[in-house]
């Protein structure tokens, strides 16, 4: 074999190796995203199951509160009747019993316990509702007229954990009409933008601003952070599938490419402004009416 043939072979071998390596990476990333997708489905399924029992516990709780109020009313009537028994055995026993069961304390504490439990239940119910809204498990994936703010709010609740220790969130919502869209897919977009914003925040507490506005036949939503920003040479690549600057396990590099695909499907666009060291702003612009379809009025 001549030297030049050998070199060609070595080159071919090298590029095959590189290709193999990138395929392996791609497979690992796909597995990861597949896993994330099934975790999402699982969460949505669990939320769906919890929804029912929480519903009747909540409703029974309301009834119970009413019953307790009636019992307390009755107790008070008994109390008022007590002086009539003054001097009798029964009056002595009643007074002792009242002390033993700590009636005054109970009357004070029961409403507090009820209020606290109700607050807890409301919170669980809210989380479950948000999970359901977010994944829209109960509806077919179809084009509907929906409020973006509602989707963003439930998405914000879902990712609250990811954000709350790093940044404050400020909502500057404009007046938006409902738009014709695939709501749960758009929620995915907002989730990715919000999580990315949270990830970009450094050790100091940051600020994420979610803004929206109406531009006639289009609406826009911005997610702005005052985090790390994006280097100019990376800006062109952030929408590439598998492009990530995050360590394995933290980033898959799929978030923005997914978001891009979803926004594209809506005939919208994503624009990015970023200044390294100061932060980034992602703006999603979407048509109000589904492009290319003569949809019904909202
Ligand atoms: N708000 C942001 N601030 C700084 N960098 C960002 C922001 N959003 C995205 N990026 C950059 O774009 C890359 C790709 O984002 P994404 O597709 O969501 O993948 P991942 O978050 O899994 O890395 C990130 O790794 C990061 O380098
Ligand atoms: Mg991401």
Can you describe what's shown?
The chain has 298 residues and is of the alpha+beta class. It has 2 domains: 1-138; 141-287, Heat Shock Protein 90. It is 58% helix and 15% strand. A 5-stranded mixed β-sheet has the order 2-4-5-7-6. A two-stranded antiparallel ribbon has the order 1-3. Helix 1 runs antiparallel to helix 3 (103-135), helix 4 (148-158) crosses helix 6 (183-200) and helix 6 (183-200) packs antiparallel against helix 8. The longest helix is centred in the N-terminal third of the chain and has 79 residues, at 3-81. The model has no long low-confidence stretch (mean pLDDT 88). Magnesium ion binds at residues 192, 195-196, 251, 255.
Index terms:
7 strands; binds adenosine-5'-diphosphate; 298 residues; two-stranded antiparallel ribbon; binds magnesium ion; Heat Shock Protein 90; five-stranded mixed sheet; alpha+beta
Roughly how much helix do the residues carry, as a percent range? 55-70%
User: How does CATH name the architecture of the largest domain?
Assistant: 2-Layer Sandwich
Widest sheet: strand ordering: 2-4-5-7-6
End-to-end distance, in Å? 73 Å
What is the ordering of alpha helices and beta strands?
A: HHHEHHEEHEEHHEE
Mean pLDDT score: 88
Gyration radius, to the nearest Å? 29 Å
Count of alpha and pi helical runs: 8
Class inferred from helices and paired strands: alpha+beta
Ligands and ions found = adenosine-5'-diphosphate, magnesium ion
